[in-house]
Write a structure and sequence with these properties.
The structure is a single chain. The chain is α/β, with parallel strands linked by helices. It has one domain: Arginase, Chain A (3-Layer(aba) Sandwich), CATH 3.40.800. Helix content is 31%, strand content 17%. It contains 7 helices and 8 strands; from the N terminus they run E-H-E-H-E-H-E-H-E-H-E-E-H-E-H. Helix 6 links the parallel strand 7 and strand 8. It is globular, with a radius of gyration of 16 Å.
Length: 263
Protein backbone atom coordinates (compact mmCIF):
# COMPACT_ATOMS: atom_id res chain seq x y z
CA UNK A 1 0.00 0.00 0.00
CA UNK A 2 0.92 3.66 -0.45
CA UNK A 3 0.18 6.44 2.04
CA UNK A 4 -1.44 9.60 0.65
CA UNK A 5 -0.74 12.70 2.73
CA UNK A 6 -2.12 16.18 2.18
CA UNK A 7 0.18 19.07 3.10
CA UNK A 8 -1.91 22.26 3.04
CA UNK A 9 0.91 24.75 3.52
CA UNK A 10 1.73 27.82 1.43
CA UNK A 11 3.63 29.84 4.01
CA UNK A 12 6.80 29.19 2.04
CA UNK A 13 5.53 30.85 -1.12
CA UNK A 14 7.89 33.44 -2.55
CA UNK A 15 5.10 35.06 -4.55
CA UNK A 16 1.39 34.23 -4.55
CA UNK A 17 -0.24 32.16 -1.83
CA UNK A 18 -3.16 29.78 -2.28
CA UNK A 19 -1.45 26.43 -2.81
CA UNK A 20 -2.63 25.36 0.65
CA UNK A 21 -5.94 24.61 -1.07
CA UNK A 22 -4.18 22.22 -3.47
CA UNK A 23 -4.69 18.95 -1.54
CA UNK A 24 -8.47 19.39 -1.42
CA UNK A 25 -8.65 20.26 -5.12
CA UNK A 26 -6.55 17.26 -6.16
CA UNK A 27 -8.49 14.87 -3.93
CA UNK A 28 -11.74 16.14 -5.47
CA UNK A 29 -10.43 15.25 -8.92
CA UNK A 30 -9.15 11.88 -7.77
CA UNK A 31 -12.64 10.94 -6.61
CA UNK A 32 -14.63 12.77 -9.28
CA UNK A 33 -17.41 10.82 -11.00
CA UNK A 34 -16.06 12.29 -14.26
CA UNK A 35 -13.20 9.78 -14.15
CA UNK A 36 -12.11 6.64 -12.37
CA UNK A 37 -9.31 5.48 -10.11
CA UNK A 38 -7.42 3.43 -12.67
CA UNK A 39 -3.97 4.17 -14.08
CA UNK A 40 -3.20 3.69 -17.77
CA UNK A 41 -2.00 0.15 -17.08
CA UNK A 42 -5.51 -0.78 -15.99
CA UNK A 43 -4.51 -1.08 -12.34
CA UNK A 44 -6.87 0.47 -9.78
CA UNK A 45 -4.45 2.99 -8.29
CA UNK A 46 -6.88 4.39 -5.75
CA UNK A 47 -7.39 0.93 -4.27
CA UNK A 48 -3.68 0.91 -3.39
CA UNK A 49 -3.87 4.22 -1.47
CA UNK A 50 -4.36 4.69 2.24
CA UNK A 51 -5.45 8.30 2.69
CA UNK A 52 -3.86 9.62 5.86
CA UNK A 53 -5.70 12.94 5.56
CA UNK A 54 -4.02 16.32 5.85
CA UNK A 55 -1.16 17.17 8.17
CA UNK A 56 -2.29 19.53 10.92
CA UNK A 57 -0.07 22.56 10.60
CA UNK A 58 0.50 25.54 12.93
CA UNK A 59 1.02 29.04 11.52
CA UNK A 60 4.65 29.26 12.65
CA UNK A 61 6.97 28.27 9.81
CA UNK A 62 9.54 26.30 11.82
CA UNK A 63 6.80 24.47 13.69
CA UNK A 64 4.96 23.75 10.44
CA UNK A 65 8.06 22.23 8.83
CA UNK A 66 8.57 20.01 11.88
CA UNK A 67 4.90 18.99 11.81
CA UNK A 68 5.12 18.05 8.12
CA UNK A 69 8.16 15.87 8.79
CA UNK A 70 6.42 14.16 11.70
CA UNK A 71 3.25 13.57 9.68
CA UNK A 72 5.31 12.02 6.87
CA UNK A 73 7.19 9.79 9.30
CA UNK A 74 3.91 8.61 10.81
CA UNK A 75 2.33 8.01 7.39
CA UNK A 76 5.35 5.95 6.30
CA UNK A 77 4.19 3.19 8.65
CA UNK A 78 1.51 2.47 6.01
CA UNK A 79 3.94 2.44 3.08
CA UNK A 80 5.79 4.84 0.76
CA UNK A 81 4.45 8.37 1.22
CA UNK A 82 2.92 10.31 -1.68
CA UNK A 83 2.27 13.89 -0.58
CA UNK A 84 0.03 16.52 -2.17
CA UNK A 85 1.06 20.12 -1.55
CA UNK A 86 1.10 22.89 -0.77
CA UNK A 87 3.93 25.03 -2.06
CA UNK A 88 7.30 23.51 -2.85
CA UNK A 89 8.80 24.38 0.52
CA UNK A 90 6.97 21.32 1.89
CA UNK A 91 9.40 19.08 0.02
CA UNK A 92 12.23 19.83 2.46
CA UNK A 93 10.56 18.22 5.52
CA UNK A 94 9.32 15.40 3.30
CA UNK A 95 12.92 14.77 2.20
CA UNK A 96 14.03 14.86 5.82
CA UNK A 97 11.47 12.20 6.71
CA UNK A 98 12.37 9.96 3.76
CA UNK A 99 16.13 10.30 4.28
CA UNK A 100 15.78 9.53 7.97
CA UNK A 101 14.16 6.23 7.00
CA UNK A 102 16.15 5.35 3.86
CA UNK A 103 19.37 7.37 3.89
CA UNK A 104 20.52 9.94 1.27
CA UNK A 105 18.12 10.02 -1.65
CA UNK A 106 18.33 9.93 -5.43
CA UNK A 107 15.95 12.81 -6.23
CA UNK A 108 14.13 13.26 -9.53
CA UNK A 109 12.74 16.81 -9.60
CA UNK A 110 10.31 18.10 -12.25
CA UNK A 111 9.91 21.88 -12.33
CA UNK A 112 10.23 25.05 -14.38
CA UNK A 113 12.57 26.35 -11.67
CA UNK A 114 15.61 24.72 -10.00
CA UNK A 115 14.56 25.83 -6.49
CA UNK A 116 18.25 26.06 -5.61
CA UNK A 117 18.50 29.60 -4.28
CA UNK A 118 20.97 29.92 -1.38
CA UNK A 119 18.37 32.41 -0.14
CA UNK A 120 15.73 34.61 -1.74
CA UNK A 121 14.61 37.94 -0.32
CA UNK A 122 16.42 37.09 2.89
CA UNK A 123 14.63 33.75 3.32
CA UNK A 124 16.46 30.43 3.39
CA UNK A 125 13.33 28.31 3.81
CA UNK A 126 10.87 28.96 0.99
CA UNK A 127 9.60 27.33 -2.17
CA UNK A 128 12.67 28.78 -3.92
CA UNK A 129 15.17 26.80 -1.85
CA UNK A 130 14.11 23.26 -0.78
CA UNK A 131 16.74 21.49 -2.84
CA UNK A 132 19.53 23.83 -1.78
CA UNK A 133 18.74 22.99 1.84
CA UNK A 134 18.34 19.28 1.03
CA UNK A 135 21.79 19.15 -0.55
CA UNK A 136 23.40 21.08 2.30
CA UNK A 137 21.80 18.82 4.89
CA UNK A 138 23.05 15.65 3.18
CA UNK A 139 19.55 14.42 2.41
CA UNK A 140 20.27 14.14 -1.32
CA UNK A 141 22.84 11.80 -2.85
CA UNK A 142 22.11 12.88 -6.42
CA UNK A 143 19.70 15.43 -7.90
CA UNK A 144 18.27 15.30 -11.43
CA UNK A 145 16.05 18.17 -12.58
CA UNK A 146 13.75 17.99 -15.61
CA UNK A 147 11.87 20.81 -17.34
CA UNK A 148 14.10 23.62 -16.07
CA UNK A 149 13.62 26.81 -18.10
CA UNK A 150 13.74 29.65 -15.58
CA UNK A 151 17.27 29.41 -14.21
CA UNK A 152 19.32 32.20 -12.62
CA UNK A 153 23.04 32.71 -11.93
CA UNK A 154 22.86 31.91 -8.18
CA UNK A 155 21.00 28.68 -8.91
CA UNK A 156 23.37 27.72 -11.73
CA UNK A 157 26.26 28.18 -9.32
CA UNK A 158 24.55 26.00 -6.74
CA UNK A 159 23.86 23.33 -9.38
CA UNK A 160 27.51 23.35 -10.45
CA UNK A 161 28.72 23.16 -6.86
CA UNK A 162 26.60 20.07 -6.13
CA UNK A 163 26.87 18.39 -9.56
CA UNK A 164 23.15 18.70 -10.22
CA UNK A 165 22.02 17.38 -13.62
CA UNK A 166 19.55 19.71 -15.33
CA UNK A 167 17.51 19.03 -18.46
CA UNK A 168 15.34 21.63 -20.18
CA UNK A 169 12.09 20.64 -21.90
CA UNK A 170 13.84 20.15 -25.25
CA UNK A 171 16.48 17.89 -23.68
CA UNK A 172 14.26 15.57 -21.67
CA UNK A 173 14.74 12.85 -24.30
CA UNK A 174 18.43 12.86 -23.36
CA UNK A 175 17.60 11.74 -19.83
CA UNK A 176 17.71 7.97 -19.31
CA UNK A 177 15.29 6.75 -16.60
CA UNK A 178 17.45 3.64 -16.28
CA UNK A 179 20.10 5.82 -14.61
CA UNK A 180 17.90 6.32 -11.55
CA UNK A 181 18.79 4.34 -8.45
CA UNK A 182 17.38 3.56 -5.03
CA UNK A 183 16.35 5.09 -2.72
CA UNK A 184 14.40 7.23 -5.20
CA UNK A 185 12.36 10.31 -4.32
CA UNK A 186 10.23 12.08 -6.97
CA UNK A 187 9.14 15.71 -6.60
CA UNK A 188 6.77 17.18 -9.18
CA UNK A 189 6.07 20.89 -9.26
CA UNK A 190 3.06 21.22 -11.53
CA UNK A 191 4.52 24.37 -13.12
CA UNK A 192 7.07 22.10 -14.79
CA UNK A 193 4.36 21.58 -17.40
CA UNK A 194 3.47 24.12 -20.04
CA UNK A 195 0.77 26.52 -18.77
CA UNK A 196 -1.50 25.25 -21.56
CA UNK A 197 -1.86 22.06 -19.48
CA UNK A 198 -1.37 23.55 -16.01
CA UNK A 199 -2.52 27.17 -15.77
CA UNK A 200 -3.35 26.95 -12.08
CA UNK A 201 0.08 27.82 -10.69
CA UNK A 202 1.71 30.84 -9.04
CA UNK A 203 4.76 30.88 -11.32
CA UNK A 204 3.74 29.95 -14.90
CA UNK A 205 6.58 29.61 -17.41
CA UNK A 206 5.77 29.14 -21.09
CA UNK A 207 7.45 26.43 -23.14
CA UNK A 208 7.17 23.65 -20.57
CA UNK A 209 6.82 19.89 -20.54
CA UNK A 210 3.96 17.95 -22.06
CA UNK A 211 2.13 15.63 -19.67
CA UNK A 212 2.81 12.67 -21.96
CA UNK A 213 6.57 13.19 -21.62
CA UNK A 214 6.50 12.71 -17.86
CA UNK A 215 3.86 9.98 -17.83
CA UNK A 216 5.98 7.98 -20.27
CA UNK A 217 9.02 8.47 -18.07
CA UNK A 218 7.15 7.32 -14.94
CA UNK A 219 6.12 4.20 -16.80
CA UNK A 220 9.81 3.37 -17.33
CA UNK A 221 11.12 3.77 -13.79
CA UNK A 222 13.72 1.11 -12.97
CA UNK A 223 13.22 1.26 -9.19
CA UNK A 224 10.30 1.90 -6.87
CA UNK A 225 10.22 5.34 -5.30
CA UNK A 226 10.28 5.59 -1.49
CA UNK A 227 8.66 9.03 -1.39
CA UNK A 228 7.03 11.46 -3.80
CA UNK A 229 5.16 14.73 -3.92
CA UNK A 230 2.99 16.72 -6.32
CA UNK A 231 2.99 20.40 -5.38
CA UNK A 232 2.11 24.00 -6.31
CA UNK A 233 -1.46 23.49 -7.56
CA UNK A 234 -3.15 26.87 -7.09
CA UNK A 235 -6.93 26.32 -7.33
CA UNK A 236 -7.71 30.05 -7.43
CA UNK A 237 -5.97 30.21 -10.83
CA UNK A 238 -7.42 26.89 -12.03
CA UNK A 239 -10.90 27.95 -13.10
CA UNK A 240 -11.43 24.97 -15.39
CA UNK A 241 -9.88 22.46 -12.98
CA UNK A 242 -7.45 21.10 -15.55
CA UNK A 243 -4.39 21.67 -13.35
CA UNK A 244 -5.86 19.67 -10.48
CA UNK A 245 -6.98 17.04 -13.00
CA UNK A 246 -3.41 16.69 -14.26
CA UNK A 247 -2.12 16.48 -10.69
CA UNK A 248 -4.64 13.72 -9.91
CA UNK A 249 -3.55 11.87 -13.05
CA UNK A 250 0.06 12.06 -11.88
CA UNK A 251 -0.90 10.71 -8.46
CA UNK A 252 -2.43 7.65 -10.12
CA UNK A 253 0.53 7.11 -12.44
CA UNK A 254 3.00 7.53 -9.58
CA UNK A 255 1.13 4.90 -7.59
CA UNK A 256 1.07 2.56 -10.55
CA UNK A 257 4.77 3.07 -11.32
CA UNK A 258 5.65 2.17 -7.74
CA UNK A 259 3.51 -0.96 -7.71
CA UNK A 260 4.73 -2.17 -11.11
CA UNK A 261 8.37 -2.11 -10.00
CA UNK A 262 7.57 -3.65 -6.63
CA UNK A 263 5.66 -6.43 -8.38
Amino acid sequence: MIALLGVPWDGGSSFERGAAAGPAAVRARLHSAAGNGHAESGRDALAALIDCGDAELPHDEAQALAAIQLAAEQAAVEGPVLAIGGDHSVTLPLLRAAARRHGPLNVLHIDAHPDLYPELDGRRFSNASPFARGLEEGLIAALIQLGIRANTPPQRAMAQRWNVLQFGPDAIADFAPASLFAPLYISIDIDGFDPAFAPGVAHPEAGGLLPRQLIGLLQRLPVAWVGADVVEVLPARDSSGITATLAAKLVKELVDANLVVRG
